[in-house]
Each structure stands twice: as structure tokens, then as C-alpha cells.
């Protein structure tokens, strides 16, 4: 066997009981004696399913994903701490695992006593232990604390000692689950060098779990992304890190745009709630009779805006009914006995559920899809991948807040339905079906218009009736409306005004602030400098910062139109209209730049005699 680890169709299922009595009955097999009621008293929760992975010897593989994705469960199955529910685990080599800070060492023993105990437990002789102790202490940099009980160690000190001991025994397979997160950057770099030497000198294999992409890039040459119990991407550490970072940036986009749509106070720190960025759409499958007569397999569904997939659900996959997820199947886990969804099934390598007669009291098979709230005014399409039995009809319906609206009949294969949504201002945010493309604005649907600004109390001004802010938006260099940018890139504020009468002169100001309210930078422009003189009607002004010299962080922007601007005065000038803290965006450091660059990247001219060199942090990466 040339591979260190092989996972084949691996799955781990936990039984979730509604009561302690049901758990005890199941534990002792009492429920099997109740022949008159064989209905399971538990619900199935698949932490992992259909996981296939081959880890060659000598590779350093990073395992990344959100909390609850199934990373630690996978490692526990590899180490043998858990038994798989289905599939196979094959391991070729001795495993040394750092799974959790606080395990493996006795808290009342000193550091050196724990070193001796751990090495002896690993099978080292007294002579080998004596030869290894000095190297372990030197590597851990704990010379001053090695004779103190480890219960007084900080998390960083503990992780240093645990890693130093675990790698001293030269394991064939080294598994690390987040414990290095407590270490500092310098020690992490030492760990990376040590693991590289292990793989090169002894052929050891490293499986490394971390939320820090910098750590994964530093240590690993390959990586996998685990999402909802499945491996969704596999490739080089750099490739997978880009995919993961893109997903994280997409979530930051949602949070930033959510603030623009749901602002209610001047204090912006409490507005980044997850549900504020998301609108939940409810769908169901129904037939011509209360319960279907036949069984109809359903494999998945996708929601798209144009060509972009904005929400996707793999029906039957692990955790497809996870209550912590916005996009999920509504099954017995959330509505006990209410749905006509079967349990998860597998056939020819594909997972699915069936819409069938499960005697659900609601007589339907429901699911929900989450979309970014700013797409609620855009035309959408939903594609259902199913294999309905041709002997009866299956319909897809959407709940508009008051009743279900039928979108159409499912066909064998992938059936696509087009529809649009709109928030009804008069009826407390309910949604209804509208003609397709009814509210297309051609700019990505993420503008902040004047009505939204007034609702959020973000508009003020002494003469707002003369100048009106119609809408605001932020674009990148490619003209995309986004809210996540990179230092050194381009950020462009688009300001659409309506001048009710001709104005001799005005000044437009863009003020960028940190989320604490501190001004980061301001940009001023007089209308006459742009050639806007005695003009009426619609006026579109753009303010572009390129290269963007603001450092990584979260920011908000106010846009103002003032009657004049005296730079010698500190007081705010008399305004026509101001959109106060109306736009939100995030800035990240350039890709592959790990050094902290600070809040501002100013150019610096370095000189030596006649030689001059310009340092510009925005060009790094």
C-alpha cells in the first residue's frame, strides 16, 4: 500500500433522540422487543457521508471548512476514535494525533515530567528519551517554564509543548486539529519547517486542520474543502484557499449589503446579523391527491440569477436538513411527522430523497432556499433535478407570504422555472410573484436608493428638496457592484443625483470611516471642476480611488452634497443632502501577502547616495 490513508465512501451517522428514555431503550435493545411499534424513535444526522480521499505517503494535506462541516469527525474516524457507519478507512502507518489542547498531558505534572511520560507511552527507551528531552525543550522555547506544572501554561505554551513532543517521535502519520491556532506566527513558521523536514526525511504524512488559510499555505502542499459533511473541492493549497476565501468574501458581501438595506441606528456595529443579509424562499412539492401514490426521487435544486448560482441544495446529502443552515430540506428533523420526504437514500453513487407517501400531516415535501436580500428585486430561476414517476403529476409551488403559487410541473431530469420577487412595502415585507424582469436595474441590483436611505434615517440636509440622492453604489475596476475589495485595487463610488433646478455650484464629498466612526479619508470635488454648471435633472458622478491605499478592515462611507467647502474651517458646511454612513464595504490585503501592512499604505522613497527606490505596498502580491 503506497498510500498513507484511504477513505472509501466513508460516512458517519449519529442518532438523535427526543428523550432520554428512547436513548436508553435503544442502548439496551428494548425497542426491538416492542413488535407492535417498530417506528424508529430517533432521527438520523449524517456528520459525514460519501467521503472519498486518498492521501499518498509524504504529503501535507490541509483540511479546511466552517465549524460543523465534519473535519474533526473525519480525523476521529482516521485515528480510530470513532467507528464509521458506512464505508471503509484504511491507514498504513503509526498515527500521532494532536486533536485538542488539554489532552495527553497530566495537568499536575511539570512540563518535563509530561515529556518523559508521553515519550515512554510512545514506546521510547530511557536512553532515547534522555537524548530527545533537550531538543524538545529547545524547540518549544519553554526553558524557563519546563519545571512548572502544565496547568499553569497558557494555550500557546501548551500547544508548543504538545507539538514538540508529538513530532519528536517521528510519526508516520501526524494529525493536527486546530491546536496550533494558539501559537504565534514565529512558532508556526518553525512548525512548518519541522513538518516539511519530517515529510522529506522520514516520509511522514501530515493531516492539518485549521481555519487559518495562512497556516494551511505555510504548512501544506495540498488541501481539501469540507462543506456539510462532503468534500467539495480538492487541489493545491493555493487553489483551495482561493475558493474558500471567495466563499468567505461572498458572506462578507452579504453582511455589508445587509447593513445598507437594514440600517436603523447610527451605531453600525450591531447590524451585521446573518439573517439580515438573507431572504428565505419557501418551496414545496405537491401532487393531485393528498399524498403521492408513487415514489418520486429528487436529487437537488439550484437558484440562479442570470448565469450565477446564488443558492444550491443537494437533497439527500449529509446535513441537507441541518437546522443551522438557511438552505435546507424541511424534514422530520424540523417538522416531526409533517412532511412526505423519505429519508436519505443512495443509488448508483447519488444521494436523494423521494417525495412519496410518508403520511406526512402537511401532505407535502417542503424545502427552503436562501438568497442575498439584494437579489429579491431580480428575476430568478430555479432548477429541480428529479425523476418523477410519469404516472402522476408533481408540482413545484412557492409560498409568497399568504398562499402558495404554482410554478409548474416537474419533468424527468432538470426542470427550470423562472420567476421574480418583490418586497411589498405596504404589507410588512411580504413577497409576491411578479412578471419576470419587472425590477431589473442593469447594475447588479445592489444600489441603495433614496427610499431605503430615508427608511433608515440616513438622509439629512438643509436643502434636500433641491438636490436629491437617487441611489448609491460601489464598483470595482471591472464595473461590478461588489462590497469586498483588495488593497491596491480600485474602488469606485457611483453617486446618482437629481437636481430639481439649476445650481451655480456645489461640492461632492466622499467620507470613508472605520466602523468605530473614525474618519479614514475624505475626497472633495467642486461641480464646476467637472463641468457641471447650471445643470438640471439627472447627474451621475463617480469617485474612484486607484490604487486603494486603505489597509485591511471593515469600513463605511458617507456621501454628501454641500453648498461650499472652506478647507480652513473645521465645522461642517451647509449641505444640500447627505447620505450618512449609507455604504459598507470590506478591504482585504493583497493575495499571498501575510505581513501586516497597517491601516494605510503610503509610498516610501528609499535613498542611498544616488540610488532611489520607491516602496509601494499596494503593488505587493
The major sheet is characterized as:
7 strands, antiparallel
Shape descriptor reads flat
What is the count of β-strands?
33
Strand portion? 35-45%
Structural class: alpha+beta
Contiguous runs where pLDDT drops below 50 for at least 5 residues: 261-276, 423-445
* pLDDT averaged residue by residue: 80
Backbone CA Rg: 30 Å
Number of helices: 9
**What's the end-to-end separation, in Å?**
40 Å
Helix amount, in percent? 10-25%
Describe the protein in words.
- The chain is 18% helix and 38% strand.
- By secondary structure, the protein is of the alpha+beta class.
- Among the domains are: 274-434, no CATH class; 448-588, abc- transporter (atp binding component) like domain (Coagulation Factor XIII, Chain A, domain 1).
- The strands form seven sheets. Strands 11, 12, 14, 15, 17, 20 and 21 form a seven-stranded antiparallel β-sheet that branches. Strands 5-6-7-3-8-9 form a six-stranded mixed β-sheet, sandwiched between helices.
- α3 crosses α4 (126-140) and α4 (126-140) crosses α5 (155-168).
- The radius of gyration is 30 Å and the shape is flat.
